Amino acid sequence: MAYISDLLKLVVLIVYFIVLLSFALYDKNINKKCLGICMNIKKRLTTILLATTILMTGTLSFETMQQNHTTEAAVNYYTKNQCTWYVFKKRASVGKPVPNGWGNAKTWYSNAKKSGYRVGRKPAKRAVMQSTAGTYGHVAYVSAVYNNGSIKVAEYNYNRPLAFGTRILSKSAAAKYNYIY
To answer: E-assigned strands of 3-137?
Structure first.
């Protein structure tokens, strides 16, 4: 946000100079040489103002999307039939989207934390179950939490390569995973 504040100060300063130059241009006693210089400076400042405004608009839009956790939630860029692809799609379908930019399953927990998502070690229905085990890690969708503490997860590419599957994990097994809420 400090970056945005600095850009805003720059915009205000540029607008101030454009206004001052506009008043100078309306002065009847101004000579032609000064008039040309003032016009040139005004054109350059206007160009800088326009470019800064475009930059600020894009930056603010990106930050707003990140804060709302809806970055490109409608488009799934994860590799089809991988665990990340399935969980991204499933979470979007239940109104709890996750961003496309979290990378391999191994980094989902840390990226979720950085993005402001609630995370923890207790399973909850509709949460993402996450593991850092293996080269790429693994994620699954928690479809049920039972009274005895066991959970049912839905997932891709776990027991069957590139295929959908479900499994039940005991309370003690479920406690070994991270969860993104």
So the answer is: 119-120, 128-131
Contact (Cβ atoms closer than 8 angstroms) between residue 94 and residue 141: no
Structure token digits, residue 10? 């720059």
List residues bridging with 170 in a β-sheet: none
Question: Please, which residues bridge with residue 156 across strands?
Answer: 164
Q: Could you tell me the residue range of the domain that residue 136 belongs to?
A: 83-180
Q: Mark whether 120 and 45 lie in a shared domain.
A: no
The pTM of the whole model exceeds 0.70: no
Same domain, 61 and 87: no
Cα 109 to its chain centre, rounded Å, is: 14
| Interatomic CA distance for residues 127 and 49, integer angstroms | 45
The one-letter amino acid at 72: E
**Same domain, yes or no, for 53 and 113?**
no
What are 85-120's pLDDT values in tens digits? 999 999 999 999 999 989 999 999 999 999 999 999
